[in-house]
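Hi support team,

I'm opening this ticket because the web form for multi-chain structure prediction keeps timing out on my end. I have pasted the exact lines I submitted so you can reproduce it. The total is 2022 residues across six entries, so I didn't expect it to be a heavy job. Is there a limit I'm missing, or should I split the entries? Thanks in advance, R.K.
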Amino acid sequence: MKKIISFGETMLRLTPPGNQRFAQATSLEIIIGGAESNVAVSLARFGMDAEWVSRLPENDMAERLLLELRKHGVGLRHVVRGGERVGIYFLENGASQRGSKVVYDRAHSSMATLQPGMIDWEAAFAGADWFHWSGITPAISQSAAEACREAIEVANRMGLTVSTDLNHRAALWKYGKQPKEVMPELTAGCDLIVGAAEDVRNYFGIVPEGDGEEAQRSMLAQLKNRFPRAKWVATTLRSNPNASQNGFSGLLWDGQQFCEAPSYPVTHIVDRVGTGDAFTAGLIFGLRSYPSDPQWALHFGVAAATLKHSIPGDMNLVSKAEVEALMAGNATGRVSR
Amino acid sequence: MKKIISFGETMLRLTPPGNQRFAQATSLEIIIGGAESNVAVSLARFGMDAEWVSRLPENDMAERLLLELRKHGVGLRHVVRGGERVGIYFLENGASQRGSKVVYDRAHSSMATLQPGMIDWEAAFAGADWFHWSGITPAISQSAAEACREAIEVANRMGLTVSTDLNHRAALWKYGKQPKEVMPELTAGCDLIVGAAEDVRNYFGIVPEGDGEEAQRSMLAQLKNRFPRAKWVATTLRSNPNASQNGFSGLLWDGQQFCEAPSYPVTHIVDRVGTGDAFTAGLIFGLRSYPSDPQWALHFGVAAATLKHSIPGDMNLVSKAEVEALMAGNATGRVSR
Amino acid sequence: MKKIISFGETMLRLTPPGNQRFAQATSLEIIIGGAESNVAVSLARFGMDAEWVSRLPENDMAERLLLELRKHGVGLRHVVRGGERVGIYFLENGASQRGSKVVYDRAHSSMATLQPGMIDWEAAFAGADWFHWSGITPAISQSAAEACREAIEVANRMGLTVSTDLNHRAALWKYGKQPKEVMPELTAGCDLIVGAAEDVRNYFGIVPEGDGEEAQRSMLAQLKNRFPRAKWVATTLRSNPNASQNGFSGLLWDGQQFCEAPSYPVTHIVDRVGTGDAFTAGLIFGLRSYPSDPQWALHFGVAAATLKHSIPGDMNLVSKAEVEALMAGNATGRVSR
Amino acid sequence: MKKIISFGETMLRLTPPGNQRFAQATSLEIIIGGAESNVAVSLARFGMDAEWVSRLPENDMAERLLLELRKHGVGLRHVVRGGERVGIYFLENGASQRGSKVVYDRAHSSMATLQPGMIDWEAAFAGADWFHWSGITPAISQSAAEACREAIEVANRMGLTVSTDLNHRAALWKYGKQPKEVMPELTAGCDLIVGAAEDVRNYFGIVPEGDGEEAQRSMLAQLKNRFPRAKWVATTLRSNPNASQNGFSGLLWDGQQFCEAPSYPVTHIVDRVGTGDAFTAGLIFGLRSYPSDPQWALHFGVAAATLKHSIPGDMNLVSKAEVEALMAGNATGRVSR
Amino acid sequence: MKKIISFGETMLRLTPPGNQRFAQATSLEIIIGGAESNVAVSLARFGMDAEWVSRLPENDMAERLLLELRKHGVGLRHVVRGGERVGIYFLENGASQRGSKVVYDRAHSSMATLQPGMIDWEAAFAGADWFHWSGITPAISQSAAEACREAIEVANRMGLTVSTDLNHRAALWKYGKQPKEVMPELTAGCDLIVGAAEDVRNYFGIVPEGDGEEAQRSMLAQLKNRFPRAKWVATTLRSNPNASQNGFSGLLWDGQQFCEAPSYPVTHIVDRVGTGDAFTAGLIFGLRSYPSDPQWALHFGVAAATLKHSIPGDMNLVSKAEVEALMAGNATGRVSR
Amino acid sequence: MKKIISFGETMLRLTPPGNQRFAQATSLEIIIGGAESNVAVSLARFGMDAEWVSRLPENDMAERLLLELRKHGVGLRHVVRGGERVGIYFLENGASQRGSKVVYDRAHSSMATLQPGMIDWEAAFAGADWFHWSGITPAISQSAAEACREAIEVANRMGLTVSTDLNHRAALWKYGKQPKEVMPELTAGCDLIVGAAEDVRNYFGIVPEGDGEEAQRSMLAQLKNRFPRAKWVATTLRSNPNASQNGFSGLLWDGQQFCEAPSYPVTHIVDRVGTGDAFTAGLIFGLRSYPSDPQWALHFGVAAATLKHSIPGDMNLVSKAEVEALMAGNATGRVSR
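Hello R.K., no limit was hit. The queue was backed up. Here is the completed structure from your submission:
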């Protein structure tokens, strides 16, 4: 099977141990995470040839980040070097009624100062048949948005399947443009769109009709109509009682049928960050492996994301066999000896 | 706004990591905590000018304790020095059916040997309009009880509003007097009384009529009748399935109306210690900020205490904005980016 | 009261901190655990004179293991030394839908190479009136199975009460024999049999009739019929939503009545390993203390095991008084000061 | 005694535990440090009224930094808020032949974007008689250099004693100016100049004559001649075998005599960062306390800095009494009980 | 061989990790230590039947302490229970010029309130031939001093060999008597006296003649003359450059010859506490094993104490074989595989 | 440049934190280490294309090990899978007079049961020009020795340069053969031999003449004479005061000249394990990079190994630039900012 290329910013995530607040932390755990490299790590662990493309400075923090991705088998040959700094985000883990909190320190990163032309997309895409990006990159800076457009254009021209996770981040988008001015054009080049109602409203002004799952179906149907190239549109479904427990499922529309998956009750969340990326990665894994069975792909994505809630850090360190065991109903939590 | 003075003993709390029992611990986390300084820390973080008055020895353990309170912005100018030792309490964290366990090692502390006259209450109360104490201080020793009476008398004379958290601790009260002999006189000088049914029965022999919330209303009504100076009487309401989960709410009676608050389901308790203090602090903050809106004050206290369950240690390290966000219904636990 | 002897393999359990997966661990916590020594530790902590018999090599890892058992008051005089290595098992803690996972590294251990005749059972059983073994030992190796048979024969001859926990481990039994060829003879010498439906089906081909608790009763009744020496047969009852929460109870059949116990909802599991051993130990404690009250014994076993879920490691570090407090209904999780 | 004001950038220092390299770190310890706030912390601990002036953003990382300085008693009333980020520096601890390594991530910090006029120096200096800055601030950015000049001018005008630590950092000075273009004017306003041969050569082109301590004397003499306002010029003397051991002393020239101090052999360095700041703080403490005894001041500075080598972090957490005990010859390392 | 009984107070030692000062600690490591139980642990590890006698309260902290001593094989049958609290001492680890610092919190401990008659010395000494105490016990309180005298009298009467480590602690002796009033009588009952010049001067007014080792010889000679029952008198010899490095040796006088041992250069001290106890234990081990070879005993004590400097905590966790290897010259520090 | 292949066993090294002894450890740090993979990691970090060949089981512990090597850029394509277990070694860190101690638990590992024919050496050596093995592999088992011989034969036939580190481990060699029966034949196929006097005496009966460095020269000369294929023979030179400090240098003989290097005084050893491998790797790097300058290669090896002493774990995580900086004389330990 050919390569899949993901593109985006990966950061040092620095997190106080346990449930400490920033005000009481005396140390920070180092996590390496970014929406797009999280997807690449998942795919590499599931056995696919996944490569991540980005821009990083020449310093020890960038090396630290690269070591972690290499460890999990992600290709790094087209990461370009330059710029000033690695992006950082500080995250404290919430519990019950207290949500987790992110303090971004990613401005002026090497990805934020990436310019179109810096990455040789023809070279990066050689031997690849799929390209994945997310809505975070165009939110970082004008030039990153342009580099993203460049990548999508080349991918379209070279015939790669293109996927995106819309991933709206309101705290970004500070460079003077609104998402509505940027995202429609980029999304138009995609074959798979993963997004939530909030993303779709902010980016495209799409307002779902009805309530609950009906609204989700309406949102997906409108989204697919709006972007005719998209073969599949999908979303996660979350019931959100609080920061420690969560029901997780998903929905996919391919123009023919609404694929559904079980809703898994995640009763004790270990780390919620990266669960959306785990869903997207599982979905992509399924659609690439069995393109004619989107139902299986959706279920694989939902089960993969369910397991991610139990794993510290951004990356979904599970195997294909573990995801399939959950899909087969093994959720009793017995000790596997 | 003027200062608020709290008075009481603060201890080193030494706690095994995670859910270890004492028998298996090889290290202990240092927490600084005491009912009254916990209240002062909350108020300082909410933006009030809060000062804590106590007695500590001249050693490095006392310095360690003071550093922690200074860090959170609590005034310390009237802490007197002398005596032999800092009180200690060892606490192991329970889970599910196993309750947390405290081993007190606070006898002979500098607060236990505090004598009336050691603290210059006129000086301490200068510039203050509120005085807060709790039922723990009169439980420690005869002389501490007398110093507490002295403080209340001066506060009453100087016109400060006086609040108390009744906080019955059966394991204290070893100096030969029963709570019933001491507490009624001290409580009589208070404008705000926070207490639970157990406290009120032990201290004042008050037996509520009815069951459930009706009993709580009966208890508060009798309490206010018994202490006519009290403008507000309040209690927390807890539904207590086990050591890891808990429903939390409160009730306040001002002689006119029973103010109620939502009951928040705390599904994953991080640290239960200090939640009562967080309630009292939130309530005081509300009553001082908006004396004519006890309903808001009660809700603020309940929401503050709910959040405290998610924070390690005795202190409620939340901001006013975070409490208000929960009051406004934001309990979904989404990551705040 | 006379001694109780337990016999089996105890290992180093090496566990990543918190919920880390093996792939992300940089350290491992050292736990000392084995089904039979876990029982001995429980009994020693409840005040009985408990001794553990096994075989260990002469090296620092064996010393480390022995130090831990000595610490908790278990007699070690008949542990024989020899062989190559201490058995190890690696365990990662699951959460929610992700079960805990064990990687065994116990082959070639000193217990696996134990030969009949190496342990002087007459000497070990002198002063004892009870012998406990489990189905793990015969699963390790042919020679360990033979040593186990030897022990049971001597125990029977010397008039000790013999108990077993069937403890089927499918990943063991690699030496060429099936459990069905080995276990019936060993079990026939037992006065107390603790086992689950899965054990009983694999070992003895017993298939329960009916569903739910009816099936459990059927299983116990058939088990007792099959092994007429057995005075008591018992099983745990678990409702298993996932790796973090669990309902726990048990059932005992003495040929006269089915003893039942409350089902305790363990909502936040800290460590599930050793809960079965805690049940067996509590049951043995009860049956030895009050042989005519199997109902109390069962309840004591269930309550002890319920508490074990809240304690890190394999050992049930609770006191008799704590178990009795839970039996008396104290499960509110209030801080005990 | 009046206040002393220090001014400069304080950062989060993030350090792998022990001697880990960045490449192997999975966590980072949080240290709060900056040359000028380190001086303020020392002075506050020695009992002086020390205040730190700087600029920080409005976020949780800035709060974390402020909590740490408040904890140690440093005044913070004139810290202004604004800008984007807190500066960070990553530091790994070397040993023996491997030096410690810093990766700066301080560009675009709130101090780097500080503009003249943002700080109300008249207000900050009210009640103060001493102002301390260092050569790091003018190295950060053009605007920070201008704000520094502004501060010195106001201090000179208001009659404060001004001290500087020249602190050359070659990795800074990226905004287009050379130190030689900026530092002479700023240094001219100082009454106390602390610097090393390297600083003085880079800033002022001063080349010492002779070798060893003779060269140091020559350097100080030239420095004082060049800056006639300076009443005292001083330098540390280090013999630098490697990252773990070090001889430490200092030299001071007041135009009359060369004051010398013992050379302390620091045989086991715990943390070298902040030792120069500890020297400067000790020297300032001495000169403010006993202006007519520069010999005592120098010795106090040298002894304080010697002790700093044994303390983790940037801050010199020692008392005046501990420094004086070392000055009196107590260096045997006996346990003080 | 018969039992050896040691008698004294053992405490929780609470120590910040690494070289942290109390002011920066957020956790404390739990060490169990006391001069006399340290001796018992050493002797048990060397293979002797050692028992420790003391008084402890009935709480979880006392249990924690007992678990640690039991773990290392020390007999505990005559520990009596009662009183209020376990003694605590806080210790921060120094480095280089900064000495380690102890904050005692041992007043009012169960040992401090021990009364003569509480311990049944006849029962404790049955089966024993050696009794060891130290100068710390008479320093704690009047009643502890009396209990100590009682023990020595019974030991003398029952014919046990009696040893003492003089161990002067100036911070104790607060109950109104001077060491000179108490120690001579107690020391008169001893067969082996271990002490330093400082102890001997404070207790007995003995002033050595000469310098260096000559003074040590003079001190020992006078000490033996003063206490004619003493068969052996011994002292450690330390060269004390600083808190991290140390030369260690010892000297013994039996009335016939001055036995000497090599001086071991301890270049990197891990934990200095308990090194004196390790010397005394090694010496006792040697004198009990080979009473006619005090030279070997001294060397064994010195080598054991040398190794103790490399071991965290109070206890000397080395084997006889390891001590003998050092005595045989194996100090190269090669990895033993 | 072509690939270099190293072959051997890599283990989990499990190490108590700091200087804890096994008896007191409650956790173990996971280090991945093996003489030959340590060499591969060094070479990969210096920029060479290094691949490691071995045999590992199919389990999570093997995955953990592979992740660590992949992280540092080592090729793993020819690692074969099979067998039962990953080898383990437990190591406690000594200090001063107490040497570090290893407890091996490597018997029955997948490498110990490796058979000739399992590895396709022609495939592994394709594209490679250098093969490295060590004397540990033939010590593990008869079949591993045979697989090693097989590898050397193929390497010789395919024209690769072959290097070995003799690495005598007396605790291995348990399968019935003496090193003298096995090692001569294997060593005969080598172009570079690194060994110490002890190895050479045990393997080949070579007895050096003279003392000190003269003996080392004699040893190397005899070694080269004995194995005429060897172009270079080299040894490390260590002066070994104790476990915490060490002088380090090396010596190389190419038949023409004795190349020497400076002796670096490592005053504070962080981790001594892997320093010999770091020397060998540095030497190989030098000889491959500049084959005509063995003097530079030796110095590079010595400087690399010197730095390794400062790095926790088995791997030498330094860059070529850092080694060259030390060679250029930069050993002052100044903070590099």
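A quick check on our side: Residues 142-158 of chain E form the longest helix (17 residues). Let us know if the file doesn't open in your viewer.
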